[in-house]
Amino acid sequence: MDIEERSACIIAMNRRMNRLLKLKLKQSKDEILEQRQSVDKDHLELQNLIYEAGHLKKQIVAVKDYKYVTNGFSVLYDVTNIKW
């Protein structure tokens, strides 16, 4: 095998390895993108749940603090005092 044949063989091997490395790199980037999207989706869902929990807590406090009185009677009354 002369130098030109060896050089051509080495160049062909380098090109093949380069193609394989590019393919592996693309696969790795795609996997990372999928994982990143999954994490972003989960993070957004968590933010939504935290916001909703805070909103519900505010509503609970508002309902507990709500006192509507008409004609001296409170609309909110203790059901334990009701005689059935």
Keywords for this structure?
single chain, 84 residues, mainly alpha, rod-shaped
Structure description:
By secondary structure, the protein is mainly alpha-helical. It has one domain (3-81). The protein has one helix and two strands. Strands 1-2 form a two-stranded antiparallel sheet. A hairpin with a 2-residue loop joins strand 1 (69-70) and strand 2 (73-74). The longest helix is centred in the middle third of the chain and has 63 residues, at 3-65. The N and C termini lie far apart (107 Å).
Q: How do the helices and strands follow one another from N- to C-terminus?
A: HEE
Rg value: 35 Å
Distance between the first and last residues' Cα = 107 Å
Work out the count of structural domains. Answer: 1
Structural class: mainly alpha
- The tally of helices reads 1
Please tell me what the overall shape is.
Answer: rod-shaped
What is the secondary structure topology, with strand pairs?
Layout: H1 3-65, E1 69-70, E2 73-74
Antiparallel strand pairs: 1-2
Summarize the structure.
By secondary structure, this protein is mainly α. It has one helix and two strands, in the order αββ.
